[in-house]
Design a protein that fits this description.
By secondary structure, the protein is of the alpha/beta class. It is built from 13 helices and eight strands. Helix 1 crosses helix 9. It binds adenosine monophosphate.
């Protein structure tokens, strides 16, 4: 199932890529431009009305285009999906498409924006040649020089009237003013995927396929999921779960959601309490360490003082002893002198 829109300026490769995706995924390309060209070629009343606007590079009226798209999407091959190419092209068409798909219960899956520089767009449009027989699209850059017939069916190659240089400018202008705002519209709906539209054809297709692939589960998440025992491996509970046994009213009470305001108020109180508890703890710790530090200082000072005190005492005692010793010496000397004189 693929329900996508290809968005992008004229020449951004929507048609070419839509054909490739169509072949690969088996869902039809629904191109508003092709439907209109067909109507013009068959000269249906709608085709006759649309012709002038197309040749001038203007948009055909929403009514005409929407009628053609509605008819095409109702066909059997579009039941399993579609690749919309060139539709919607303005915000009214985007609204109509949303309603149309809502009615059939098939909402859009993604919108791929083909991002191509203006220089490349002009080169592609001016060099484009289309086969009248099978509709194959070529560019003079890749065709053998002077080639005028289709490689596939031999049909005549021609230049679309709106690919003439004077019309190209108008079409790009219309894209800027009317279609480009859809980028933001689909971005806001979460549907937009931007694809770099320059490079090889297959390279661009690969980018588109990658953008459409479902997102890969992160490896870690996958591993965790695998490691978890599956629910059906768990032993069956011996008794019925509590919720089952509860009366209806109790059950209601259990699942009743707590009002957001209450939750917020409770969270605030907890935060306040936590804050003040933290402050108190810091104060206490500061006091404790200050006390400890003070004790240490006092102890040190006391030790020093004691040391000093002892040193001082020892010095005094030593002095006294020295004095005494000195006196004794002089007494001895006098006694000696006295004894000598007696002799
Ligand atoms: P395309 O082949 O998509 O470039 O379309 C060729 C021309 O057809 C445009 O320049 C318009 O004149 C007309 N056309 C195609 N699609 C739409 C649309 N969705 N709304 C109005 N006009 C369209």
């Amino acid at each position: 199932m693929m329900r996508i829109v290809l968005l992008g300026a004229p020449g951004s490769g929507k048609g070419t890529q839509a054909q490739k995706l169509q072949a690969k995924f088996g869902v039809p390309q629904v191109s508003s431009g092709d439907l209109l060209r067909e109507a013009v070629a068959r000269q249906t009343p709608l085709g006759v009305q649309a012709k002038a606007a197309m040749e001038a590079g203007q948009l055909v009226s929403d009514e005409i285009v929407l009628g053609l798209i509605r008819e095409r999407l109702a066909q059997d091959d579009a039941k399993n999906g579609f690749i919309l190419d060139g539709f919607p092209r303005n915000s009214d068409q985007a609204g109509s498409l949303a309603r149309l798909l809502e009615d059939v219960g098939q909402p859009l899956q993604a919108v791929l924006l083909m991002d191509v520089s203006k220089t490349a767009l002009i080169k592609r449009l001016a060099g484009r040649r289309v086969c009248r027989g099978c509709g194959a699209v070529y560019n003079i850059e890749s065709l053998p020089q002077g080639a005028t017939t289709c490689e596939r069916c031999g049909g005549e190659l021609y230049q679309r009237p709106d690919d003439k240089e004077e019309v190209i400018a108008k079409r790009l202008e219309v894209y800027q003013s009317q279609t480009k705002p859809l980028i933001e519209h689909y971005r806001q709906l979460g549907l937009l995927k931007v694809i770099k539209g320059e490079g090889g054809l297959d390279q661009v297709t690969a980018r588109m396929e990658a953008a459409l692939a479902p997102p890969k589960e992160p490896a870690e998440k996958k591993a965790k999921a695998l490691a978890k025992p599956k629910v059906d491996l768990a032993p069956a509970p011996a008794v019925a779960p509590v919720v089952e046994a509860q009366p209806a009213e109790e059950k209601k009470a259990v699942v009743k959601p707590v009002p957001k305001k209450k939750v917020a108020a409770a969270a605030k109180t907890v935060a306040k309490k936590t804050k003040s508890a933290a402050k108190k703890a810091v104060k206490k710790a500061a006091k404790k360490s200050a006390k400890k530090a003070a004790k240490k200082v006092v102890k040190k000072a006391a030790k020093k003082a004691a040391k000093k005190a002892t040193k001082g005492k020892v010095a005094k005692i030593a002095k006294k002893a020295a004095k005494k010793a000195g006196k004794k010496k002089s007494v001895k000397k006098v006694a000696k002198k006295k004894a000598a004189r007696k002799k």
